[in-house]
Write a structure and sequence with these properties.
Blueprint: H1 4-27, E1 32-33, E2 39-40, E3 47-56, H2 62-70, E4 76-80, H3 92-101, E5 105-109, E6 111-112, H4 115-120, E7 125-127, E8 129-130, E9 141-143, E10 147-149, E11 152-154, E12 159-163, E13 166-170, H5 175-197, H6 202-205
Parallel strand pairs: 3-4, 4-5, 5-7, 6-8
Antiparallel strand pairs: 1-13, 2-7, 3-9, 3-12, 10-11, 12-13
């Protein structure tokens, strides 16, 4: 029977392994790619961890406040705001609360605010943008039920990887397969880099057919 320390160590190792591959490689290796409307709020933001799905009523963020009290340390909140993007659903107050709870980051299909503060706290947030107007805090929502964020289904047991290239969801049931495929892809690309530095071309190495390209004499 596993204990909390072992489980925490295993989760941390998984997060580290996924982060090392990055969203772009994972997205080519079986992870689900979120729409590019969701991106980092501040330069250098990056996070990997198990997903905590959150659903809010449009214009309201009570579900997020409750999720911060329920999410396990190291997890990533993934919030569906019901299609109402143009409100600042998250700011410095929730960031301080999330940091105190050990939450690793936030992916939200909506806007946030207090961007400088988020960056100064080093809290990774990925959103659709920035907005000043706040949300109400009394309407229904859910924590832990499946949600759709960035046009991708997210469930408990899934993993989130987010960085400068975007956000991907690694289904829990496919975690080992996706990680193995990503690791193999990274190793293959390392070999390509070696060949390219030695003077070979992508056309050769990827066995591309250049015949559709209309070539003109070089100028100069």
């Amino acid at each position: 029977m596993s204990d909390g320390v072992t489980d925490d160590a295993a989760a941390a190792a998984t997060a580290e392994a996924l982060a090392a591959q990055g969203s772009a490689t994972l997205g080519e290796s079986g992870a689900r790619r979120m729409r590019n409307r969701i991106g980092p709020v501040w330069p250098g933001a990056a996070v990997a961890g198990p997903a905590v799905p959150v659903r809010c009523t449009p214009g309201d963020n009570l579900g997020i406040h409750v999720a911060v009290t329920r999410a396990a340390p190291g997890s990533v909140l993934v919030a569906d705001m019901g299609g109402e993007h143009e409100l600042g659903y998250w700011g410095e107050v929730l960031t301080v609360a999330a940091r105190a709870a050990g939450i690793a980051g936030l992916v939200i299909d909506g806007c946030v605010r207090d961007v400088d503060a988020l960056a100064s706290h080093g809290f990774p947030v990925f959103s659709t943008g920035i907005a000043l107007t706040g949300a109400t805090k009394f309407r229904p929502g859910s924590v832990g039920a499946p949600v759709e964020v960035g046009d991708v289904l997210v469930e408990v047991g899934d993993w989130i990887v987010a960085d400068v290239d975007g956000v991907v969801v690694v289904p829990g049931a496919a975690l080992d397969d996706v990680l193995a495929a990503a690791t193999a892809r990274t190793a293959k690309e390392a070999g390509l880099f070696t060949e390219l530095r030695a003077g070979r071309t992508t056309v050769e190495l990827l066995d591309l057919d250049p015949s559709p390209i209309d070539l003109h004499p070089r100028s100069g």
